[in-house]
Amino acid sequence: PPSATENLRPGAEQKVVFITARVHPGETPSSFVCQGIIDFLVSQHPIAKVLRDHLVFKIAPMLNPDGVYLGNYRCSLMGFDLNRHWANPSPWAHPTLHGVKQLIIEMYNNPKINLEFYIDIHAHSTMMNGFMYGNIFEDEERFQRQAVFPKLLCQNAEDFSYSSTSFNRDAVKAGTGRRFLGGLLNDTSYCYTLEVSFYSYILGGPTSAVPYTEEAYMKLGRNVARTFLDYYRLNSLVERPLAPTPKTR
Description:
Layout (H helix, E strand, L loop, with lengths): L13 E8 L7 H13 L4 H9 L1 E5 L4 H6 L24 H14 L4 E12 L5 E6 L4 H7 L1 H9 L9 E3 L8 H8 L5 E8 L2 E3 L6 E3 L2 H18 L18
Parallel strand pairs: 1-2, 1-3, 3-6, 4-5
Antiparallel strand pairs: 4-6, 7-8
């Protein structure tokens, strides 16, 4: 259909989903989740094709490459926890944040671009499952809208827990990507931290913990990508295999 690549026509208004990962170098599961998102989006899967036609995905898969290279757990080469410096990143001390933030601000100021989602992927050392952190807003309707994506993700991913998902404005988290961009962007943008457990997720009863594997993390990434199909109500556009024609008598 002519509307299929509406988002990509020159001069068209673009809906952008911005994803970042690995700002904390020790949180390796975040890289596998991000890999799952990327692999799915560039695949031949019919859902991936619809997503590429309607949305623009910007992905920075590793915000702390020097920390990863050095084997640091939380800090960059210069000893900074980058996830506390979004408010005023320095081009020499926090170059990756500075670059990503400049790009986000440019997009935000571009009337042809709607920056609709920002998702920063982390790993959690004490909690199980995948879950999200969102922001708190005075506006009740905006708050309710923000809960839609994690609720849909919960339906798609057996290891994602909506009950562990929380919305906060903890002062300690003020310099994080989610909090800073949640304050900067307007009320049609949704900013989340996606957390995934370092070790396991629970299926069924509280005793049935399943250890995470690299594949399970990547599957969560695929499910995050698929959830945009539900969120934007694009399901009807997915090409389904043709059903066999019923034999006429």
